[in-house]
Design brief:
The chain has 310 residues and is of the alpha/beta class. It folds into two domains: 88 residues, Leucine Dehydrogenase, chain A, domain 1 (Rossmann fold, 3-Layer(aba) Sandwich); 147 residues, Rossmann fold (3-Layer(aba) Sandwich). 43% of the residues lie in helices and 14% in strands. The chain contains twelve helices and ten strands. It has a five-stranded parallel sheet. The chain has a three-stranded parallel sheet with strand order 2-1-3, sandwiched between helices. The chain binds NADPH dihydro-nicotinamide-adenine-dinucleotide phosphate. NADPH dihydro-nicotinamide-adenine-dinucleotide phosphate binds next to helix 12.
């Protein structure tokens, strides 16, 4: 259990962001512009289907239009490029999101490069990556952008502070490090070849963990009072693992009994929370922020492309 005063509540901040986006969508609509997000799903991966459905649902809740394009797993790169070209050319489409992972037969880099950077609401196009690096961000990857909003709205000072990011993916780690750097933190970026991770991560006043390894970060990785943000997301279906992760935690066990699984992160929250100054939970931390920022990026893309008095 995380004590209330330590909790970095992603669910609450995400709902603030969603309310602001809904307001902005209202202003755009008054100018005759309804932001539209098009999501492309190739194949029938069940997790991807869930993500795509929740993106469409949230778009509708905030007053945006959303179209989902479902293509069979056997789709060729040329066919997918044809769809991207069509969406790029359609003035009504403000945001294009290609759900990853794509089938192995398609080179995702080539597909992401094809998206019009002005509609690249995931922020993965090289133009958007370059603009972020230069400190003049346009569309920023949603997960790190959401974490920055969380830190800002929770009044966590970054200037001059030591930040450590664990994980160097293009989706989370690298853009996260860049955003922290631009916010004047002193940033260290760690990865699987980092020597003595606990010693490096203990230097962090702000520790962001996006390694995709369940419970990688334990008490020995965290300095007293550090702010810890856990990006990891793992579904645990083994009761003995749940008991080991959350000993004596009745809430978690009840959730497990109900759903047959619980979500946990890259941080061993039970052992780290007593040491940390602030910490995100899993679920209810970074996850809700990611989708809220996707909506914010779509509204932003609509405003920038089609203009409005708002
Ligand atoms: P990737 O697998 O693309 O990258 C993982 C990174 O972690 C790599 O850079 C890897 O190093 C590094 N790493 C792996 N093991 C270790 C280790 N033992 N010590 C130090 N570094 C290590 O993952 P993503 O960035 O896409 O995602 C990370 C996690 O965040 C996943 O659990 C994912 O499910 C979750 N996620 C959650 C989101 C949300 O909205 N909550 C959104 C996006 C991701 P190397 O480069 O050397 O291989």
């Amino acid at each position: 259990m995380i004590e209330e005063h330590k909790l970095l509540n992603g669910t609450r901040v995400a709902s603030e962001i969603r309310a602001e986006v809904a307001e902005e969508v209202g202003a755009l609509s008054a100018d005759g512009i309804t932001p539209r997000l098009d999501v492309v799903l190739v194949g029938d991966d069940p997790a991807s289907q869930v993500y795509v459905r929740s993106k469409a649902k949230t778009s509708a809740e905030l007053g945006m239009r959303s179209e989902t394009h479902v293509l069979p797993a056997a789709t060729t790169r040329t066919e997918l490029e044809f769809l991207i070209d069509r969406l790029n050319a359609d003035d009504e489409v403000d945001g294009i999101l290609v759900q990853l992972p794509l089938p192995k037969s398609i080179d995702s880099t080539k597909i992401l490069d094809r998206i019009d950077p002005a509609k690249d609401v995931d922020g993965f196009h090289p133009v958007n990556v370059g603009l972020l690096q230069q400190g003049r961000p346009q569309l920023v990857p949603c997960t790190p952008a959401g974490i920055m909003e969380l830190l800002r709205r929770e009044s966590i000072d970054l200037k001059g502070r030591r930040a450590v990011v664990v994980g160097r993916s293009d989706i989370v780690g690298k853009p996260m490090a860049m955003l922290l750097l631009h916010a004047h933190a002193t940033v260290t970026l760690c990865h699987s070849r980092t020597r003595d991770l606990p010693a490096v991560s203990r230097e962090a006043e702000i520790l962001i963990v996006a390694a995709g390894q369940r419970s990688l970060v334990g008490a020995e990785h965290v300095a007293e009072g550090a702010v810890v943000v856990d990006v990891g997301m793992h579904r645990v279906t083994d009761r003995s693992v749940v008991e080991q992760l959350y000993p004596g935690n009745e809430t978690k066990m009840a959730a497990f009994e109900k759903r047959g699984a619980v979500l946990c992160g890259d941080v061993d929250t039970t052992r780290v929370a007593p040491i940390a100054g602030r910490i995100t939970p899993v679920p209810g931390g970074v996850g809700p922020l990611t989708i809220a920022m996707l909506m914010a990026n779509t509204a932003r893309a609509a405003r920038q492309r089609r203009g409005s008095r708002s």
